[in-house]
Amino acid sequence: MKTKIFIVILTLLSFSTAFAHKLNILAFAENNVLTVNSYFADGTPCRECAFQVFDAEGKVFAEGKLSNDGEFSRNGKLPAEMKIVVDGGMGHRGEQTITSSAETETVNEEPVQSTSVDTAQIRQLIREELSKQTAELKAEIDKGRSHLDMIIAGIGYILGIFGIAMIVKKK
Amino acid sequence: MHISEGVLSAPVLISTGAAGAALTVFGFYKMKTEMLAKTALMSSLFFVGSFIHIPVGPTSVHLVLNGLVGAVLGVCAFPAIMVALVLQALMFQFGGFTTLGTNILVMALPALAGYYLFRLGMKTAGKKRWALFFLTGGVPVLLSAVLLSAVLALSGSRLYDTAKAIFLMHIPVIIIEGIVSMYLFNFLNKVYPDFLRTEYEN
The pTM is what? Predict the structure, then answer.
């Protein structure tokens, strides 16, 4: 009977090694569009979390609540540098500083005068696409990563620390 | 239960941080050499407990296990929890370094309640003991939720909303830790009573 109860308890617990309590923020500012996506490290979005966007001088540029998918986007003129702060509630908070890519702005506004392709422009475009994709990829890896090895390492550290403490105390 | 960096206001951070640090030093000072191995063990348990998640609604909460740690260690729960929290902050950005003292206070102070409930349980027998062992696991989590709400409220978050969310989320944790502690301590008391004999003080 007791073992049965224990098995039930154990199955009720999800032994995921993800941490629902580290708040990640994925933010892009390109072509005057700011996109913010915030999720806990196990992949659950930060639903309707309060957020604020500050510019370089520390003034509030935008604030409000994220959508049900933990997203927010805004078109229009953006400051060059922005700090995004998301409050996940219960003492959870995430912070991210991004710079908006102003260079694309000029690229897009310039009328295309020649048909010859400017390699600098292409390089710029590719870099932007890639940076966006790698950031998304990194988020994807974060969501699914198992930290079991690090947890075991942590136990090792604890035992080591107390081992040293024991040597110190014995003296 | 882990408060991230930048959530708390400076006065709250400094006062709770100082209290947490002082109690940790006190706990370490009081610790007997024989307690070190046990402290290391319970510290590891606390460290791992924070990675065991219970799904609640759209999100999840993790186990706290401060009742178990407190029951076995008494005042030595402070250094045990401190070491575990430092490593969690260092390796997983779980909590933070500026909020370390506050987190110690929020999680380790209620552990003492676990210690006294457990001692009380050891003196009784039968159903009363089972009930007290259940409370040993459950009450410290409840008290941690109270402290967490208070600390967040003092830093300007709306008390009612914050407290409500924290309490509702932690009801399953309270029940699970109560049941685990109830069976664990009854089992340990039968097979390894020496482990539960804590004369931790100098």
Answer: 0.74
- Rounded distance between C-alpha atoms, residue B47 and residue A24, angstroms: 22
Residue-range domain boundaries for chain B: 10-196
d(CA B167, CA A78): 40
Q: Dihedral sign for Cα A115, A116, A117, A121, please.
A: negative
> B83–A94: do the CB atoms touch at under 8 Å?
no
Q: Do B183 and A19 touch (CB under 8 A)?
A: no
- B10-196, CATH topology level: Arp2/3 complex 21 kDa subunit ARPC3 (1.10.1760)
Q: Is B55 on the interface with A (CB under 8 A)?
A: yes
SS3 content of chain B, % helix, strand, coil (to 5): 75, 5, 20
Domains of chain A, first to last: 18-112+120-170 (2.60.40.10)
- pLDDT tens for residues B103-144? 999 999 999 999 999 999 888 888 899 999 999 999 999 999
